[in-house]
Write a structure and sequence with these properties.
The chain has 281 residues and is of the alpha+beta class. A hairpin with a 5-residue loop joins β6 and β7. It has a domain of 153 residues: Beta Barrel (Thrombin, subunit H). The protein has a 6-stranded antiparallel β-barrel. It has a 6-stranded antiparallel β-barrel with strand order 6-7-8-11-10-9. The longest helix has 75 residues. The protein has 3 helices and 12 strands, in the order ααββββββββββββα.
């Protein structure tokens, strides 16, 4: 019963508004004259209501449009963010490829200057703790790698092969205290032994106190240790200390190779059986 009355009331209200609307509309078809009192009351009271309803409808329509537009903008913004992330990653990949190409070009150019067969390798593990001055490369027995082969890149000497497995090899870096390389000062041919001191420094040992050594001198391999060919760059002198009571000078050397940034390098292959080579010739 209550639902029926509610429906009847709604129908009567709709009918009343419809009648008022028709009445107002009929005014447009009457000759122009001053409205009577009833007409003015109806017009003045009902038209603001219609105007308010129209404003509310217009506001609601604008809100719906803004909501739909906001959802579209959010969706478009999310899509643009994904595209931007993809483009940024592609840019990083291109930059990495470009830098790798530059490194490989320099390594290839350097390789052509070495009068020996070389094997390119990539660093697969680098000890960053500082406990061991070594790294692992992706070449081993299968690639004819053997201990005591020299390891270099376009900047200079990296170290030498320490031990080898089937597919990998461990490189002892020039900065390891166990490393020893026969070397000379390029400027005046003063000879000594370069050994590691710490992760960033080497020392040039066994140089007598009366010999001329200066900061900035370039040190190269002498070729007399049977491991490193002659003329490879090792480092530059960064400090010289002389003690009248000491027979030898204390000479600090900075390696030219940026050991912490190594990615590609060359292993200089040496003849492991010279007698067979001589017999073949």
């Amino acid at each position: 019963m209550t639902d029926w009355l509610r429906r009847l009331r709604s129908a009567l209200l709709i009918f009343l508004f419809f009648c008022i609307f028709l009445y107002i509309l009929s005014l447009n078809f009457r000759p122009p004259e001053r409205m009577d009192v009833l007409q003015r009351i109806v017009v003045e009271s009902v038209l603001p209501l219609f105007k308010s309803v129209g404003n509310v409808s217009s506001y609601a329509e604008d809100m719906i449009k803004e909501y739909v537009l906001l959802r579209e903008l959010r969706s478009e913004n999310g899509s643009l963010k994904e595209q931007l992330a993809s483009l940024e990653q592609r840019l990083i990949d291109y930059q990495e490829a470009y830098l790798e190409n530059q490194r490989l070009r320099r390594l290839l150019d350097f390789r052509s200057t070495i009068q020996a067969e070389t094997i390119p390798a990539q660093v697969v593990l680098h000890d960053l703790t500082g406990w061991f001055q070594t790294l692992m490369v992706d070449k081993g027995f299968r690639d004819q790698i053997a201990p005591d082969m020299a390891v270099v890149n376009d900047e200079g000497v990296v170290g030498r092969i320490l031990d080898v497995s089937d597919r990998y090899a461990r490189v002892l870096l020039v900065t390891d205290p166990g490393s020893s390389i026969d070397a000379i000062i390029q400027r005046n041919r003063v000879r000594g032994i370069v050994s590691g001191k710490d992760a960033n420094t080497c020392v040039l040992k066994y140089v007598r106190g009366n010999l001329d050594v200066q900061v900035g001198d370039l040190i190269t391999t002498s070729g007399k240790d049977g491991v490193f060919p002659k003329g490879l760059r090792l480092g530059t002198v960064t400090g010289v200390s002389k003690d009248p009571l000491d027979l030898f000078q204390k000479i600090e050397v900075k390696p030219l190779v940026r050991l912490s940034a190594l990615e590609e390098l060359l292993i200089i292959k040496r003849d492991t059986n010279p007698s067979e080579k001589s017999a073949g010739n």
